[in-house]
Amino acid sequence: MVLLPITGLFIRAAGMGWESFWLVISDPRVVAAFRVTVLTALAASLFNCVFGVLMAWVLVRYAFPGRRLLDALMDLPFALPTAVAGITLAALFAENGWYGQALARVGIEVAYTPLGIIVAMAFTSVPFVVRTVQPVLEDLPGEDEEAAMSLGASDLTVFRRILLPSLWPAIVTGGGLSFARSLGEYGAVIFIAGNSPYISEVISLMILVRLEEYDFPAASAIAAVVLTASLLLLLAINIGQERSVKRLHGG
Amino acid sequence: MAAGIPRRVGDGAAVRRTLIALATLISGLFLLMPLGVIVAEAFANGWSGYIGNILDAYTLDAIGLTLFVALLTVPLNMVFGVFLAWLVTRFQFPGRKLLTALIDIPFAVSPIVAGLLYLLLYGRNGWIGGWLGSHDIQLMFAWPGIVMVTIFVTCPFVARELIPVMQQQGREEEEAGVVLGASGWQLFRRVTFPNIRWALLYGVILTNARAVGEFGAVSVVSGSIRGQTNTLPLQVELLYQDANVVGAFAAASLLAGIALVTLVAKSIVEWRQDRP
């Protein structure tokens, strides 16, 4: 179910020979799609690192009315089908949409630009950083923090010097997961991206474009690159997680 | 502790209020507002328009297919997930670590790539698909293909929820059961199951949500034949591209409803898990 199809893809891609593989991958439109995808995924993950830490912080450290609701809301992007998220964000940010109208007045265009891709990717991967940082923040021992505070250090200094180092592995893990998800995102992105070649076409759409041209070898070659990237990311995240677990347990 | 001196970072009233306000504002704008848009757009033509869109023949077909796919996928993955979690937590065998890592792969793979993997293998020109084709069996661009990719993208959910719970639980209770002469099925029903039921339910809820909503992988293998291989998310796309925005949002509202039920169910399960 899992290994056979993956092996199949790699054999297909390998079977086409290095030269034709390279020809497909180095096609300017494909290169542009890779660039757009990586840059927007990076931006979306960075946004989620900041937003995720803020959300985890507020949800763990403060008690306030509506906290549980806010907590449940964090999982919405995973529960909502990507196609639904896609048309909804497109409607919000379109020229005549609720946000689109307001943003147009200050001269910002989101829908049908790379900015729209970032919004869609950020939306679908919101839960990753929140849910990896939250448990770490909950289990964080308070002594160092309290000692530093009582010695008169400012909030920002204590956060930066004492809390952030402990949270860092969780932030990187969550950010990595968010990046991996964004690289492959399709459903949420295509409705808001505009999908113009070289500008706002993501790599998963590129695979589909090649498929619709019945160019199976090209689709396989691009897919093999994407798959390799996501498997390597998964491996890196797993290794990183194992290390930080060992460090926490003093091993 | 002297009054007024914050004990921990962010305890100051101003910081506290600012951060809560900021978090609520961004979450509202970014996460809650989209739900509002769905409702506003779906009911743009009032109740009767909404009902009319839902009762559209193709939309009804899509609802039927989506339910059918979920009905096949969820029980299969539930059994598979329990089996896998049991294997990984109760036995030591070579390749156990590798198997644990393999479980995560479907999460890391892009949905489009997942669809393509199956198309290449089971499609008309694929290794297995070619052989099946010569026996008049067609998997891709038909409902079996949709079920197959849905199983692929949802197979980690149950196992991932169960593994930590079963690891924590250990095997002592089960061993005691064996000593007392319980059969395998009795052991599962009386000892293992009561301990894992909430985690299992949670895994099933997540599996169901994803099975109903999967879009990318399904769109590669479905062929989107109206009335035949069109699932509800694909129907949303078709309507949207036909410039029937209200119809698309009406169909989307059903999926959003399932998403909300998922969130509520998840909160209840988590609340139950906290107090066994």
Number of domains of chain B: 2
CATH architecture of the largest domain in chain B: Orthogonal Bundle
How would a textbook summarize the main sheet of chain A? Answer: none
User: Averaging pLDDT over every residue of chain B, what do you get?
Assistant: 89
Mean pLDDT of chain A: 92
Number of helices of chain B: 13
Element pattern of chain B in H and E: HHHHHHHHHHHHH
Helix and strand pattern of chain A: HHHHHHHHHHHHHH
The fraction of residues in strands of chain A falls at under 5%
Biggest beta sheet summary of chain B = none
Distance between the termini of chain B: 37 Å
Beta strands of chain B, count: 0
Low-confidence stretches of chain B: none
Secondary structure category of chain B:
mainly alpha
Task: Based on the coordinates given, report the CATH architecture of chain A.
Answer: Orthogonal Bundle
CATH level-3 fold name of the largest domain in chain B? MetI-like fold
Q: Provide the helix percentage of chain A.
A: over 70%
* Contiguous uncertain segments of 5+ residues of chain A: none
CATH superfamily of the largest domain in chain B: MetI-like
Question: How would you describe the overall organization of this protein?
Answer:
The complex is a heterodimer of chains A (251) and B (276). With 251 residues, chain A is mainly alpha-helical. In chain A, 79% of the residues lie in helices and 0% in strands. The model of chain A has no long low-confidence stretch (mean pLDDT 92). Chain B has 276 residues and is mostly helical. Chain B is built from 13 helices and no strands. Chain B has helices spanning 13-42, 46-54, 57-90, 96-108, 111-122, 127-134, 143-154, 156-169, 172-179, 184-213, 216-222, 232-241, 245-274. In chain B, α3 crosses α10, α5 crosses α7 (143-154) and α7 packs across α10. The longest helix of chain B has 34 residues, at 57-90. Chain B is globular, with a radius of gyration of 23 Å. Chains A and B meet through α1, α3, α4, α5 and α6 of A and α1, α4, α5, α10 and α11 of B.
